[in-house]
Specification:
The protein is α/β, with parallel strands linked by helices and 315 residues long. The chain contains 14 helices and 13 strands. The longest helix is centred in the last third of the chain and has 21 residues. The site of magnesium ion has 4 residues, from helix 7.
Amino acid sequence: MELKGINKEIMAKIEKKELTIEMIAVSTAEELVAQIEIEEKDAKKVIKTAQEELGIQPMTALKFLEHESKRGKITTSSTEFDSILGGGIWTQELTEVAGSFGSGKTQLCFQLCLNVQLPVEEGGLGGNAFFIDTERTFSPRRVVEIASYRDFDVEEALSNIFIGAALNTHHLFSIVDELDEVIKEKNIKLLIVDSFASHFRSEFIGKGRLVERQQKIMQIAEKLIALAVKYDLAVVVTNQIIANVEEFLFGSPEEPALGFAWAHRPQQRIFLRKSRGSSRIARLFDSSRMPEREALFYVTESGLSDAPFSSDFYS
Ligand code: GTP
Ligand code: MG
């Protein structure tokens, strides 16, 4: 780590405590003083420098561009899909993947759990994945299958994926609240919640509980975004689809669940739908960075890809 203008002595203390730039940038001066025993004025300077480095201090657009170009991306294994996302799934933000059953949300998550482990030159982040499973859909067998097609060391790849089963929303909160340690210790660069929507939709039923539900969703969204920024990791959550009864706002009779308040939280929103055979269409429909565009990809035996697997050809 490099913090311009900070002396060696302070940098050594920071390194000894294994603090990252992200952790420093979101600390208060008091917290930093307590952790590394420096003067308060130095702590303030260190925090400001870290914030500048991360681009969360006012800055010119040119500096912002430089900062953005350094952010990590995880490949989806489909070049077309990556291209509509601006290079893959980005760190430091929350990406929502919505789609009906069988549209490929979980398959994409499995693929990302492996791809995040690749070196940067190959589209990964050289890090590990934490998969919060709310529906018991994590399939080691399927991950093994994809990993073995892709030349991963299967055992190592599996040991780099951490799984937390969230049995209800309360449990989901408690897992998320305890993630800091494991993220630091296990070099987690991808955090997945699959499915993000299911417990909220099944536990808070009826109009009377809608406000409470929205509050909980916003709280957890804030926590996830904070983790993404603090630890420079990608957060991907999956969402279900509901009938769009009011109007065809979304250009289709379906829209992602969880309502308007949620709709503004993810920085990237992706809608997946089935197409012919094993092909799928991904639409980036709400992004501050990229235009609305669609990509065609395939879910094959070897995972996500640009082309169909031979035996999928005529299915
Ligand atoms: P829900 O969780 O039910 O909402 O759906 P989802 O969007 O998570 O669907 P998922 O990602 O589980 O996709 C399931 C689909 O992936 C299946 O219907 C298959 O089309 C495809 N799929 C899963 N495993 C394989 C496989 O081994 N080979 C091939 N070719 N396709 C597979
Ligand atoms: Mg699924």
